[in-house]
Structure formats: C-alpha cells, structure tokens
Amino acid sequence: xxxxxxxxxxxxxxxxxxxxxxxxxxxxxxxxxxxxxxxxxxxxxxxxxxxxxxxxxxxxxxxxxxxxxxxxxxxxxxxxxxxxxxxxxxxxxxxxxxxxxxxxxxxxxxxxxxxxxxxxxxxxxxxxxxxxxxxxxxxxxxxxxxxxxxxxxxxxxxxxxxxxxxxxxxxxxxxxxxxxxxxxxxxxxxxxxxxxxxxxxxxxxxxxxxxxxxxxxxxxxxxxxxxxxxxxxxxxxxxxxxxxxxxxxxxxxxxxxxxxxxxxxxxxxxxxxxxxxxxxxxxxxxxxxxxxxxxxxxxxxxxxxxxxxxxxxxxxxxxxxxxxxxxxxxxxxxxxxxxxxxxxxxxxxxxxxxxxxxxxxxxxxxxxxxxxxxxxxxxxxxxxxxxxxxxxxxxxxxxxxxxxxxxxxxxxxxxxxxxxxxxxxxxxxxxxxxxxxxxxxxxxxxxxxxxxxxxxxxxxxxxxxxxxxxxxxxxxxxxxxxxxx
Length: 485
Ligand code: F0G
What we know:
The structure is a single chain. By secondary structure, the chain is α/β, with parallel strands linked by helices. Helix content is about 35%, strand content about 15%. The protein has 16 helices and 13 strands. The strands form three sheets. A six-stranded mixed beta sheet has the order 4-5-13-10-11-12, with helices on both faces. The chain has a four-stranded parallel beta sheet with strand order 8-7-6-9, with helices on both faces. A three-stranded antiparallel beta sheet has the order 2-1-3. Helix 3 crosses helix 4 (about 165-175). It is globular and about 80 Å long. The termini are far apart. It binds ligand F0G.
C-alpha cells in the first residue's frame, strides 16, 4: 500500500532546517536553500523545498496568525504571503522581496452558486485577480524573487501564457534589487492585457514561433546555458509562495476547512502548491481534515484529465508510471496535436508539475475534469454577472464545479471554494467577443472554436441618438431577467 505523500524531512536531510530535496524517492538528493535547482541535477525530477519542522518555531494554532492583522504597516505582515512566513520558513526576513501581494478576497457568491447548483452560502470565490499584477502568480513570485535575492541572482526568466510574465515584469520593475526580466512567449498565444503588462513594465519580451510548451522547453535550455534564474513553477520556491492562497482561504473561513477546493489546471503549479500546503498543515497538526481537490482542465489542453481519469496515472509514493506519460506525449507528437483553448492561460499540453499534482490529488482525494470552451465562457459570464469578473481560464474552476455538481460528486450543501486565478481585464478580447454585437469579432475569437452565443451574452443595444428611442429602449430592456438567474 502506498504510504502518505511527504514534503517533510527525510533521513538523508541536509544540515539546515530548510533545504531542497528531489521528490523521486529513489533519488531523494538534498541541496541547501542557497542553491538554485529547477530540476534535480542527479536524476532530473522535480525538487521540493522541505522543512525539518522540529527545529523551527511554528504557531501552535492557525488562529495565531490573526494577530498579524494589527500590524498592517509592517510589509511582512501586510503581505498575504509573508504573514504566514512560519509556514514557508526558508528566507531571512531582511531578504524578502514583497510588493504587497496576496491581499485578496474570499467572497460568498450566491448568484454564481445558483448557476452552479449550490445551496445558498455554499459557494465561495477566492479572487486572486486582486493581486498587484492581476493574477495569483504574485503569490509565487514574491517567494521566488526572495530566493533569487538570497542567492544574488539578477537575470530572471520565464516562459509564459501571459500571467507569469506579467508578474515577473512587475516584480522586476517595482523593486530596486537590479533584477532584469526576460520572458518567452509563443506566437499569438498571449492575451492582450498580459502582453501589455510585459511591455509596459519593461521586460525583454522574446516571442518565438510555437506555443507555450515550445517556449517552456526553450527557456529551460537558455536558463541552463546562461545561468539565468528560472521563474516558472519548476522553481520550488514559487510553490512555497502559492501555498499561501490556501492559508488565506482558511483564514477567511474562520480556519474551517472547506469541503472542496476547485482550481483550473495548466502547468499544475497551483494544485501542487495547494496539496503541499495541506500535507504540511496536517503534518503539523494545524488542521484535522483536508478538503477534496478538483483540478479542471480545458478540453483543448486535457493532459491531466487523460492521464489521471482515463489512464489512471497515480502518484504511487513518488513512483508514478512515467511510461504512461511518455506514451501519451508520444501520441501527441505523432498526431501533431497542440493545445488549443480560449482559456489561453491554461493552453498547455505538457504540464511541468504533473508529478507534484499527482501527489496533491493523492493526499486530497482529488478528482480531475475537463470543460469545453463553451462551458468556460458561460461560467465566466456568471462570474461577471455575480460581481467579480475573471479571465477565461479562471472560469474553468466554476465550470468544473458545475460539472461535478451535475454528476453528484459535489453535494449542494458542501462548502466549495473556486479559485479565480486571474482578473477579468487580462483578456478583454474574449469577454467582448462573447458579449458583443460584432459578428465578425465573435466569429474570429469564439465561433471558430465552436462556441455559440448563449443566453448569458449581454449585448450592447444600438440605439439612434434620440431621446425618445433611448427612453423606449430603457423601458424595454432594463427590467429583463438577469443573465445567471
Ligand atoms: N489561471 C490563470 C489565470 C493562469 O495564468 C494559469 C497559468 C493557470 C490558471 C494555471 O495555473 O499553471 O498553476 O496550473 N498560467 C501560467 C502562465 C502558465 O504562464 O502565466 P497552473
């Protein structure tokens, strides 16, 4: 029988209380936190940040973190990541790089909950669009930039579907530690809001012919060759910061563990980080139960769902069957299949954190689903009508929750938290195409993907510039039914 997944100290541990370790149990090589490894130098597997908790001061109860709210002028208490620094204790406080990330919101969302099929008060949205760069990535970047500063790195790089690069560019430009941003993007594969951020914040933006998976392969090669610090989520310090999203969900829930966390799956950094957070909190005795985890792929980028749900790939204590993964990637190559979805942020076929995500699914009794572009865009319109607003990839969580509700996997009375990973304004093109009256624009952006105009579209009404016509139009439309009811 498989043992519990670990992220805590192994017998071959390094001498420090915080260190790095290869997740492959047959290797389990350890490294100090003063080194940068984006893959295990011995076996090539993923690397974790690991703590010997017995040698660290950890609060006795999660409630102890609330005291920090009264110290809002202290940047480390005001950061929604570093407020919990006892749970990511790898960095000396004076090295922390923070731009005020993680001041985000867990909001009860009954209108969206109705569309999903939940009882009142049971659906919550964790709105990570409130971060400085408009997505959850800032949670991870603050931790990775802190590590980069600890080891004296200057040139920092990533491949991105847009949000990682936006966050990286913001952290470089908003701080004064000499960081230089280099970002790799695929051609035509990045939403305008995100590209605008990269350009405006002064990142060297390298656009290659290919998609995210091609850009990811290339940036790893370049980082390796030139000794550039890699900021993608293969960097284990990124995931340390992203654990804090779960700490804030617990904090905003009065430290009560929800029944479900539902998150979109792209490169699988978030789901991996969430799993690690719960493994550690349980190990430390700070929670007594764990939520179930649902990871939601877009149908056009469905690697995790195929491998987990159809081919039954499992964590198996770190010994996942890599032949199954290789076989699937071989099929993708042989058939020339590329990732393709309106949710460009998760248009990824070779998720780099696959193995860590399997660990999270194992520990959190997880499920994986895929949702169509139509389901994504409809769910996105419910989120907008419910008051928050998100980009298409984020709405995959809401569409996934509805699917699980319809299947009866989620009960209407369960407490469900959907993670809204990115802000609505990241991708105005998709939103306007869905709602807009411009047929040409609709066809180009959505029609070509098989997405139909649904009843949720809120079209602009074209009216002659005459007072009577305007008054008649208001009388006709203003009291019509709300889209998500
Ligand atoms: N949602 C948004 C808005 C994203 O930008 C991403 C990933 C995801 C979900 C998926 O998260 O990779 O942790 O599973 N965006 C990356 C990027 C890949 O380059 O910005 P994940």
